[in-house]
Amino acid sequence: MSSKLQSSNNIAQARRTVQQLKLEANIERIKVSKASADLMNYCGEHAKYDPLLMGIPASENPFKDKKPCTIL
Amino acid sequence: MAAQEVQPNETLASLKTESETLKTKLEEERAKLHDVELHQVAEKVEALGQFVMKTRRTLKGHGNKVLCMDWCKDKRRIVSSSQDGKVIVWDAFTTNKEHAVTMPCTWVMACAYAPSGCAVACGGLDNKCSVYPLSLDKNENLAAKKKSVAMHTNYLSACSFTNSDMQILTSSGDGTCALWDVESGQLLQSFHGHAADVLCLDLAPSETGNTFVSGGCDKKANVWDMRSGQCVQSFETHESDINSVRYYPSGDAFASGSDDATCRLYDLRADREVAIYSKESIIFGASSVDFSLSGRLLFGGYNDYTINVWDVLKGTRVSILFGHENRVSTLRVSPDGTAFCSGSWDHTLRIWA
């Protein structure tokens, strides 16, 4: 590759990096406090539907073996 | 790409300076909104109790390291792939093998189940992603119907169907991700921006729109717009390769697992890392991460053979699971959240609940 082509490729690459950074710098952001509150709310609202979190009885979990019942 | 006219004031040096200035500005903008830590906000959340999670099933049959696995939407079938070149479809309830395909290459690093449950995709050192329709006839040779979809110039590290059986997203050791049409094999979009091998990807939950996140050996996690091919956000806080990325169920955040022995949580709307899941005693890399259904728990498979369970909000570890006899290489929670599956270099897969 000729050095002229290489240097214009490097410049093209650097130009792309600058464009990308401009894009990323200009996005809209919210505060961590708000973002955290939203994450917590999501967890809270969905907790009761989370079998691994709540633990569900063996009878409802196809992977847990049902214990044999003894009739007294 | 044709060489463009260089503007007089636009030398390489001036562009590099502008780059540095923009990077600093990016950090400043992010820092302005860093008013609190997630675990501080989460102090008022009730602590989690003791977890009893055990191996409920062990899937034996691979002849070498298990590298990847995926659940079928029916919540019981699993596809797994191995260094031995085999791709196996299992019924996780019964542990029966339903299908087996021998790939023409070893190190099948990626596999995925189609949303319909009627096909699986896989690939690895062959640099391709191939789709195999699953036949109801157990005697039929699956390899005969194989369709080559993706072609990369280096190994395939991960693949995922999008919302339908019609499109596949891939990531590769060639540093790119790509979106393909399954029927024609046509490249629909390519994603350039990683500076080294891309190791993992995850699609945003369908409600949140057309984006996906990728992680690579350049220590970066990039969020991409699938339609434009544009990288919309980039995060570089890990200190080593990112082996696994997974969206938080709401789509507003994602977790990553890295060779730097930490898992991290990045919030997309705050545009920053908001939690690190680490302990001094954990010194081996995290290979694979996934969330429980509510997003409260993060399961991490590690190279020290263990699975650590983290409280996502408080940042603490709530459980450590032993059982595998070699590195855990892949881990996914089932679609209905009742169990999760881990695959390991010990040749087995385990179902935990």
Keyword list:
heterodimer, A: 72 residues, mainly alpha, G Protein Gi Gamma 2, B: 353 residues, mainly beta, Methylamine Dehydrogenase, Chain H, 4-stranded antiparallel beta sheet, 44% strand, globular, WD40_rpt (chain B)
Explain this structure to me?
Chain A: Keywords: Cell membrane, Coiled coil, Lipoprotein, Membrane, Methylation, Prenylation, Transducer. Chain A: Residues 7-72 form the G protein gamma domain. Chain A: Residues 4-31 form a coiled coil. The complex is a heterodimer of chains A (72) and B (353). Chain A is 58% helix and 0% strand. Chain A is mainly alpha-helical and 72 residues long. Chain A has a single domain (2-54), classed as Irregular (G Protein Gi Gamma 2). The longest helix of chain A is centred in the first third of the chain and has 23 residues, at 3-25. Chain B is mainly β and 353 residues long. In chain B, strand 24 and strand 25 (317-321) form a beta hairpin. The N and C termini of chain B lie far apart (53 Å). The mean pLDDT of chain B is 94.
Q: How large a portion of the residues of chain A is in β-strands, by DSSP E?
A: under 5%
Report the strand count of chain B.
28
Q: Tally the helices of chain A: what do you get?
A: 3
Reading off the top of the CATH hierarchy, the class of chain B is best stated as: Mainly Beta
Reported for the largest beta sheet of chain A, the result is: none
Would you give the CATH topology of chain B?
Methylamine Dehydrogenase, Chain H
Measured as a percent range, the helix fraction of chain B is under 10%
Taking all residues together, what is the mean pLDDT of chain A? 84
CATH architecture assignment name of chain B: 7 Propeller
Low-confidence regions of chain B: none
Q: How many domain modules of chain B?
A: 1
Q: Approximately what portion of the residues of chain B adopt beta-strand conformation? A: 35-45%
Q: How does the major sheet of chain B shape up?
A: 4 strands, antiparallel
Unreliable spans of chain A are: none
Taken in chain order, the helices and strands of chain A follow as HHH
Output the structural class of chain B: mainly beta
